[in-house]
């Protein structure tokens, strides 16, 4: 369990702090983000599967992504299922992606702009923006009110829940609220849900996370 950042001077204050969500109107990191930062600092690379449901206007998209990451900025992705199944890309910094389409054209690799429609999701999320560490840090970067509370269990995993009420949705692609659940065991995120009003416009579930796999630059051919 995470300890409150507030140092209580009495048992009563300690009990209050332990049962009250931690609020940060100035978006200073809450304990779950601090714990994630510490876990990420001890990680050289990671691999995970991300199940993503996105909505934009009257369109929706369902995909399962496979992600490989190595510090400082090596990323490889593959769409395992859903729209554009078999497509993938490699990003090694800069403003280009080396990518390929699925199916018959999978052997043809092209270098395209990072923001090319072929390289982003329905809501325009680029490959580096989809990295777990970058997703987590939007909760500090986007102005709003950030709180933390116990998130209950997800698939049997005890979680901490952080909730960002966005101050200015028009500057955050219309998002009014961002919610993320962190494993209390690993301190890595396992689910994120974004809202526009009452509508869920993005739902991500992170599976099969493995860290410090020993990746090298040869695993990220550009």
Can you describe this structure?
The chain is mostly beta strands. It has a single domain (23-214), classed as Lipoprotein localisation LolA/LolB/LppX (outer membrane lipoprotein receptor (LolB), chain A, Clam), CATH 2.50.20.10. It contains three helices and twelve strands; from the N terminus they run αβαββββββαβββββ. The longest helix has 11 residues, at 31-41. Mean pLDDT is 88; it is low at 1-25.
Strand content: 35-45%
Morphology call: globular
CATH H level: which superfamily?
A: Lipoprotein localisation LolA/LolB/LppX
Which residue ranges are poorly predicted, with pLDDT under 50 across at least 5 consecutive positions?
Answer: 1-25
State the domain count: 1
Individual helix count: 3
Separation of the first and last Cα atoms: 42 Å
This entry's quaternary arrangement is single chain
CATH fold topology: outer membrane lipoprotein receptor (LolB), chain A
Number of strands: 12
Structural class: mainly beta
Kindly provide the name of the CATH class: Mainly Beta
Instruction: Indicate the percent of residues in helices.
Output: 10-25%
Largest sheet: 12 strands, antiparallel
Order of helices and strands: HEHEEEEEEHEEEEE
Mean pLDDT: 88
- Alpha-carbon Rg, integer: 19 Å
CATH 2nd-level architecture: Clam
Short recap of the structure:
This protein has 222 residues and is mainly beta. It has a single domain (23-214), classed as Lipoprotein localisation LolA/LolB/LppX (outer membrane lipoprotein receptor (LolB), chain A), CATH 2.50.20.10.
């Amino acid at each position: 369990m995470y300890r409150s950042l507030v140092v209580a001077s009495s048992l009563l204050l300690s009990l209050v702090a332990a049962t009250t969500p931690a609020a940060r109107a100035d978006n200073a990191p809450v304990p779950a983000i601090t714990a994630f930062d510490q876990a990420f600092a001890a990680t050289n690379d990671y691999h995970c599967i991300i199940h993503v449901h996105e909505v934009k206007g009257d369109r929706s998209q369902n995909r399962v992504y496979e992600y490989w990451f190595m510090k400082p900025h090596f990323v490889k992705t593959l769409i395992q299922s859903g729209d554009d199944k078999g497509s993938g890309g490699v990003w090694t910094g800069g403003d280009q992606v080396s990518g390929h389409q699925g199916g018959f054209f999978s052997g043809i690799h092209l270098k395209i702009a990072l923001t090319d429609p072929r390289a982003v999701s329905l809501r325009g999320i680029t490959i580096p923006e989809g990295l777990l560490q970058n997703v987590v840090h939007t909760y500090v970067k986007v102005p709003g009110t950030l709180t933390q509370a116990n998130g209950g269990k997800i698939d049997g995993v005890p979680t901490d829940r952080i909730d960002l009420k966005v101050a200015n949705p028009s500057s955050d692609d219309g998002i009014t609220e961002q919610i993320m659940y962190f494993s209390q065991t690993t301190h890595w995120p396992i689910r994120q849900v974004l809202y526009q009003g009452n509508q869920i416009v993005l739902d991500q579930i992170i599976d099969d996370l493995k860290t410090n796999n020993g990746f090298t630059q040869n695993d990220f051919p550009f």
